Each structure stands twice: as C-alpha cells, then as structure tokens.
C-alpha cells in the first residue's frame, strides 16, 4: 500500500485521468442553512483516499493490540526494578504516543463514518483537545493497572478477563436483542464462517480499545457499516462513571495491600494524582464535545444538556430507592403499632373481665 500510494502520488499530474466521479457533500449548517457541494474525484485521488483509510485503521489496530500491551509491560518492569532507564523511557514515550495517535485516528474515523454526508473539517483546537483527552485517560489507566498488578498479580488477570469478556460480548448481546438478520454484506467473497470470524476479531479490537479508553467508534453489528451512527451520551456517561469507580477501587486495593516496596512513594499523593489525571481527561473530553467538535451543530442536544439529563435520571432513581425504603419502614412501623394496639386491647378486655368476675362474686 505504501509503495502504491507513493507511486500514485508522484504520477498524479503526469497522466491524465480517464474518468472522474462526482461526490456530493453537505456543509455543516450555518445559521440554519446547509449548502450541498459537488466535487470531482479522480481515480488516483480515490485510491489515495482508500489507502489513507486503510492506514488509519491499521494505526488503530497497531496502537491497542501492540503499543498498549508494550507500554503496560515496560512500566511494570520499571516498577519492579525501581529504575527508569533512558532507553526504556524512550520506548514508553513512543508507545504512549502511538496509543494516543491510534485513539485520535479512531475519533476522526468515527466522526467521518457517522457524518459521511457532510464535509467534515477538523480544526487544530479539536486535535489538541483529543490529544490531551486521550493522553490523560490512557496514561492514568495504564498506571492504575500496573500498580494494582504489582501487588495483586493473580487478581489482575481476573480484572482484565472481565473487561475483555464484558466488552466482547456486549455488541453480540445488543445484536441478539435487536433480532436483526445476520450481516451478509461485509465482503462478497467471505462465507458465513469467515464473516463470523471477522466480526469476532472486530469485537476483540473493540474490547481492546475499551480496556484502555473509551472507543469513539461504537460497534453495532446490526448496522451495515458495523458502526453506530447515533451519539449515545448515556452510554458514554455510564462508561466514564463506571471506569472512574473501577480505577478508584483498584487504587484503593493497591493502597491497602501495598508492600514495603512502596515506602519510597507517597501513596496518598500518588492516588490523588492519578484520579485527578483521569478527571482531567474527562474534562478535555467535555471541552471537545462542547466547543471543538466539527459537527457539534448537528447534535440534537449539547454535552451539558445530556449530562444534566443523566444526573436527573440518577437523581430520580436514588429518590425512588429512598422512597421505597421509607415506605417499607413505615409499613413495618404501622404493623408494629397495630400489633401493639391489639395487644393493649386484649389486656384491657382481660382486665375488664377480671373486674366483672370480682363484682359478681361479691354480689
């Protein structure tokens, strides 16, 4: 692909295109008006776009199935050896940049797939917000996993296994609940078994991404493009709330079971820094979707409105749970009061009977 891309690029102006295709894209609405733009795309430009799309997907695969485990392993070795060499630090920085770049390409791919009808132009401020968002999120996540695995080496396998199984099975569960037919139009040459293998590998990559950060491209097996085109704020909110709670729990377990090996580290300060770092990643994510997203004018609701609605739902759930508990307590108290009233009435009746018997005996 690289050789063909360079060959097409250098031969683009020398050979005249035999035919061109016309593509139609709509501009992002401005003042409620959206203009449709026609563009001529030559054969060479179409091939270059195909290669660029393939390179973007390859960078995502390489980042989360290659660089992410490599960064985790190198940081784990540094923790055990209590030493960070120059060579290892260089490799860790390169691995982190590779993961951040892969996550950034995943964001851009998701935007272009969701808004394929529009002419999407990403500004430098958006790239900066995505870079900071992914850097804080991935770095803190890797550090939390390494710290937890350094003191509870067996339990870290259970944490990784539950994460992978949960995210691998989640798209299949949604596909089963939707009762959609099995996707057959992924590739004409693939059989049903080959299509199943491709979908399993896709969900495996999806689980690998969500293991370290939020996947901007949400897998939806019932969709022809296999990518969800709706902006699901509730799913994103639940993911980050659960992930923050998981990171806090893993750090708490590390703080409780840490050994004398960590005497040279200020443990409370480290826990606080990691939690603040993850919250900083969430902050830059909110800034991106609120101000820097190239298609923010197409959102049915803004980030602040979505967060307020999510918090309202959580508030109503908590209030309903409290009211249920209070109703149960009131029912228990009322039944207890009824029993006491019955007991007191029985005591009064027995007392009256004894008085009546004494009066009749005296008479």
UniProtKB/TrEMBL annotation:
Q: Which InterPro entries match?
A: XK-rel (IPR018629), XK-related_adapter (IPR051773)
Task: Specify the domain of life of the species encoding this protein.
Answer: Eukaryota
From the record, what ranges are coiled-coil?
none
Which cell locations does it reside in?
Membrane
Regions that span the bilayer: 86-104, 125-148, 154-177, 197-217, 237-257, 269-291
In this chain, the stretch annotated as Disordered covers 336-363
- Biased composition annotated in UniProt, kind: Basic and acidic residues: 339-352
UniProtKB keywords: Membrane, Transmembrane, Transmembrane helix
How this chain sits in the membrane, per its record, is: Multi-pass membrane protein
- Can you cite an annotated GO cellular component? plasma membrane
What family classification does the UniProt entry report for this protein? Belongs to the XK family.
Q: What is this protein called?
A: XK-related protein
| Biological source species | Notiomystis cincta
């Amino acid at each position: 692909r690289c050789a063909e891309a360079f060959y097409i690029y250098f031969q683009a102006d020398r050979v005249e295109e035999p035919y061109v295709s016309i593509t139609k894209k709509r501009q992002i609405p401005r003042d409620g008006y959206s203009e449709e733009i026609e563009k001529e795309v030559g054969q060479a430009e179409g091939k270059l776009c195909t290669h660029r799309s393939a390179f973007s997907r390859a960078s995502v695969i390489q980042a989360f199935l290659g660089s992410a485990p490599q960064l985790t392993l190198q940081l784990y070795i540094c923790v055990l050896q209590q030493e960070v060499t120059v060579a290892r630090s260089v490799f860790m920085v390169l691995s982190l940049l590779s993961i951040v770049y892969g996550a950034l390409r995943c964001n851009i791919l998701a935007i272009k797939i969701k808004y394929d009808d529009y002419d999407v132009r990403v500004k430098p401020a958006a790239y900066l917000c995505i870079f900071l968002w992914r850097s804080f999120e991935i770095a803190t996540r890797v550090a939390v996993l390494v710290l937890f695995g350094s003191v509870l080496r067996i339990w870290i396998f259970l944490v990784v296994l539950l994460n992978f199984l949960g995210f691998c099975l989640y798209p299949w569960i949604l596909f089963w609940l939707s009762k959609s037919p099995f996707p057959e139009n992924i590739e004409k040459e693939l059989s049903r078994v080959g299509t199943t293998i491709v979908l399993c590998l896709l969900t495996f990559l999806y689980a690998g991404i969500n293991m370290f950060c939020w996947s901007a491209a949400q897998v939806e097996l019932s969709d022809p493009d296999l990518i969800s085109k709706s902006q699901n704020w509730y799913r994103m909110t639940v993911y980050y709330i659960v992930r923050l709670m998981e990171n806090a729990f893993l750090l708490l377990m590390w703080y409780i079971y840490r050994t004398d090996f960590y005497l040279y580290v200020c443990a409370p300060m480290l826990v606080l820094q990691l939690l603040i770092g993850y919250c900083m990643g969430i902050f830059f994510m909110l800034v991106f979707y609120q101000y820097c997203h190239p298609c923010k004018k197409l959102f049915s609701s803004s980030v602040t409105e979505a967060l307020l609605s999510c918090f309202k739902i959580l508030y109503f759930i908590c209030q309903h749970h409290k009211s249920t508990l209070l109703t149960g307590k009131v029912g228990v108290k009322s039944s207890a009061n009824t029993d006491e009233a019955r007991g007191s009435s029985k005591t009064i009746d027995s007392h009256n009977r004894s008085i009546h018997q004494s009066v009749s005996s005296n008479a």
